[in-house]
Design brief:
Helix content is about 20%, strand content about 15%. The chain is built from seven helices and eleven strands. It is globular and about 50 Å long.
């Protein structure tokens, strides 16, 4: 499930970029070293790296505590809690025409629909059931602090039967492939700053939090251009882009980086996600089937437009069932 686009995208040339066409072989044979885009030539990191016992605190599960059955199982271990979920929307109040960015009228409703669907599946907010999953209009500093909190400050594998099956991080923002645009600090002049997608996902490596070892890390990232930016418009067949491949195992990323708003469906990338998650006819939501169906819905909503299908890159090593 490395890519579900209609045809593979080429990448921009350069020695430090991973070609999406080779994503499957890259992820199956070896990880990348030092980040998401730099190829590993040392062959020294074929196995998932984990801290030694001396490097972790006693309150966090260490690698020796993970039973062999979990390593050998064809499915990820299901815990009492489905997972932690965070939804970030930088599309709401705060972006102004004077700063070169417009508002998204459907953004608040998109957040509400996503939160409802995820709550019904059993996902929990970061700060407990009485809080919200939604965080809006974040500056670069606040966004960085949030994803570090999600990645490093939680124990996803506590003792006993608690614990979380996975962690889900959703971002809706302006930007482009691999870059997430945040709000400028209050009073700050100039362009709104960017956060690199690889830095967001890099924080979730188990080197930073051993309790994330063998836990699926799921990312849904929408970075769409302004309505007047037609660099991804129908008929632009020459555009190329870099697909960001996670370095470690157990990552899955679902990305869309083009304008996908119309009068019939609003933000039809989000609508496709919500409709699939809320489909009561599906008794077993295996993650690969989930994203196949999301892309099918997306194609239905875009009608006759010849735009790209959202891209899935995966280094999951097992099946993941959400319910």
């Amino acid at each position: 499930m490395d890519s579900m686009s209609d045809k593979p995208d080429d990448t921009k040339g350069g020695p430090e970029e991973v070609d999406a066409r080779d994503a499957g072989s890259q992820m199956d044979s070896k990880h990348t070293k030092g980040g998401y885009d730099q190829a590993d030539t040392s062959h020294a990191e074929d196995d998932q790296m984990l801290p030694s016992k001396e490097e972790v605190t006693p309150s966090v599960t260490i690698i020796e505590d993970i039973k062999a059955a979990e390593f050998d199982s064809p499915t990820y271990m299901k815990c009492k809690n489905v997972g932690k979920a965070v939804i970030v929307s930088n599309f709401m109040k705060g972006y102004t025409k004077e700063r070169g960015l417009g508002l998204r009228p459907h953004a608040e409703n998109d957040c509400d629909l996503l939160e409802k669907a995820l709550t019904e599946l059993g996902f929990e907010p970061l700060d407990g059931k009485d809080s919200r999953m939604v965080y809006t209009n974040l500056t670069k500093n606040k966004f960085t602090a949030l994803y570090n909190k999600v990645a490093e400050k939680n124990n996803y594998r506590p003792k006993g039967d608690e614990g979380y099956t996975c962690v889900l991080f959703i971002v809706m923002s302006y930007g482009r492939s691999g870059l997430i645009q945040c709000h400028a600090e209050p009073g700050e002049k100039g362009n709104h700053p960017f956060v690199e997608q690889k830095d967001l996902q890099g924080a979730f490596q188990p080197q930073n939090n051993p309790s994330l070892a063998l836990k699926p890390k799921l990312f849904i990232i929408q970075t769409i251009p302004e309505a007047g930016d037609f660099s991804d418009s129908p008929g632009d067949g020459e555009k190329t882009e870099t697909k960001r491949i996670p370095r470690e195992a157990d990552f899955l990323t679902y990305t869309s980086d083009e304008y996908c708003i119309n009068a019939d469906h609003g933000n039809y990338f989000i609508k496709a996600i919500v409709e699939v998650l809320e489909d009561k006819k599906e008794s077993a939501l295996e993650i690969q089937r989930v994203f196949i169906r999301m892309n099918k819905k997306y194609k239905e909503y875009r009608k006759k437009e010849t735009k790209k299908i959202p891209c899935v890159t995966s280094s999951l090593t097992k099946q993941l069932f959400l319910v």
